[in-house]
Write a structure and sequence with these properties.
Helices cover 5% and strands 36% of the residues. With 424 residues, it is mainly beta. Strands 2, 3, 4, 5 and 6 form a 5-stranded antiparallel beta sheet that branches. A 5-stranded mixed beta sheet has the order 11-12-13-14-18, with no helix packed on it. A 4-stranded antiparallel beta sheet has the order 1-30-29-28, with no helix packed on it. The longest helix has 13 residues, at 3-15.
Length: 424
């Protein structure tokens, strides 16, 4: 490239396109890979176990933080952090922590920041001109199940006063005892009474219990990746584990690593997606009966009556967040399509682990159209990856900035990227 060309490229990165001022990207995109025409810069780091994020109209970013530790170790971190770019360089140098306890879901609604903890949903009032909320939190929902497995919560709003919360199932496939070779599934599964579904509440009513909410959808295992879009709730679910470990006479390690798809579901009131009785087979593209309920890997049986996913992703990628893109900065093909943050697998051995990316699922006419594509990758820092703990980063949150750029957060250290389209 000539000197003139290099200067022109630099000016383009700073000024952006259509006259919009945009920050310069990092030379290596902060260590991640993106499609042609996109670049990224690291805007915050070392926040802790960052999960979901939400953006204010002025560009302030609010990040939910899970606690670390547990299982005999003291828990640290948690709460949330509010971030602001005070000097206009595109990075968040102002960081103000608030709240406490493990937090996954976070959202801004009508002057409040809503926080989703494992057993409670709270909100805190934001004051004009101040970055973080001040004052006591109001409890919107309390007394959610205390089970430690799959307790992470996501939250979504329908714009008409409805608040939606996932209540994950503390189980693999409703076995009794859980996760034991050859153990049958309980039929009907009692876990579904208070778990394994989406519950709807009033976003403005204080002190609601689960019994006061409405079970909106059922037949789901774990699904903090929830969002409201185009008149429906969209969910991306973690499917079952350990097919070969518990049923070695019927399933191989390759079956386990590749068959139980992570499904994207469009939920309406009363939807039933079939867990724990069925799993969606990624290669066969259909629901099949789980072995805990007599399935042999081919039999459909009762699964014909359940609602199939509208899109499917490879097994064990572990979806944690979903956001539909409504901006105009990215090319037209991204509009109204869904970005999904995949935390990455642990249950694919002896095959390498997989996922650890942000994937884009195109939509057209309100329905998924065409194959998904990996949008952001390279988070693990090494390939192949055998041990999830060796990953440098694990994507867990996505948020859209007011200018249409995209924030991506990760939970290993708490790094946040801003992805910008600079044109081809």
């Amino acid at each position: 490239m000539t000197i003139v060309g290099a200067i022109a490229a630099l000016v383009f990165l700073v000024a952006g396109v259509n006259g919009q001022t945009r920050p310069m990207c990092d030379p290596d995109n902060g260590g991640i890979t993106l499609p042609p025409g996109f670049c990224a810069l690291v805007v915050a780091d070392n926040l802790g176990a960052a999960r979901h994020m939400t953006v204010a109209p002025n560009g302030d970013l609010y990040v939910a933080l899970m606690t670390s530790g547990g299982r005999g170790q003291p828990e640290t971190g948690g709460g949330a952090v509010a971030l602001r770019d005070a000097n206009g360089d595109g990075r968040f140098e102002v960081k103000e922590p608030f709240s406490s306890g493990s937090t996954t879901g976070i959202a801004l609604r009508n002057g409040y920041v809503y926080l989703a903890h494992p057993q409670t949903i709270e909100r805190m009032k934001l004051t004009s001109g101040q970055l973080k909320p001040i004052g006591a939190a109001e409890t919107i929902v309390t007394g959610l199940p205390t089970d430690r497995q799959h307790e992470d919560k996501g939250i979504a709003f329908d714009g008409n006063g409805g608040l939606y919360i996932n209540v994950g199932a503390p189980s693999n496939a409703c076995q009794q005892p859980d996760r034991r070779p050859g153990a049958k599934g309980v039929d009907p599964c009692p876990i579904l009474e208070k778990h394994g579904g989406i519950w709807k509440f009033d976003e403005n009513k204080m002190g609601q219990t689960q019994e006061q909410g409405t079970r909106f959808a059922t037949g789901l295992r774990q699904m903090p990746a929830i969002t409201w879009h185009d008149g429906a709730l969209y969910i991306v679910m973690h499917n079952r584990d350990q097919l070969d470990t518990f049923w070695p006479m019927t399933f191989t390690a390759k079956d386990n690593a590749e068959r139980p798809a992570e499904g994207m579901y469009r939920a309406m009131q009363g939807s039933d997606f079939g867990w724990p009785y069925c799993f969606y087979d990624y290669p066969a593209k259909m629901l099949v009966l789980n072995p805990e309920y007599g399935g042999d890997g081919k039999q459909v049986g009762r699964c014909s009556k359940f609602t199939s996913p509208v899109a499917a992703f490879p097994a064990h990628w572990a979806p944690v967040d979903i956001k539909f893109y409504t901006g105009s900065q990215f090319p037209a093909k991204y509009r109204n399509g869904a970005f999904v943050a995949f935390h990455g697998s642990w249950n694919r051995a002896p095959l390498p682990q997989a996922g650890y990316n942000v994937t884009f699922q195109p939509f057209s006419g309100g329905k998924p159209s065409g194959a998904f594509e990996v949008f952001a990758d390279g988070f693990t820092g090494k390939t192949p990856l055998a041990n999830p703990g060796d990953a440098v980063a694990r994507p867990d949150g996505i948020a859209q900035a007011p200018d249409g750029s995209l924030f991506i957060g990760e939970s290993q250290k708490g790094k946040i990227w801003r992805v910008i389209y600079r044109g081809k």
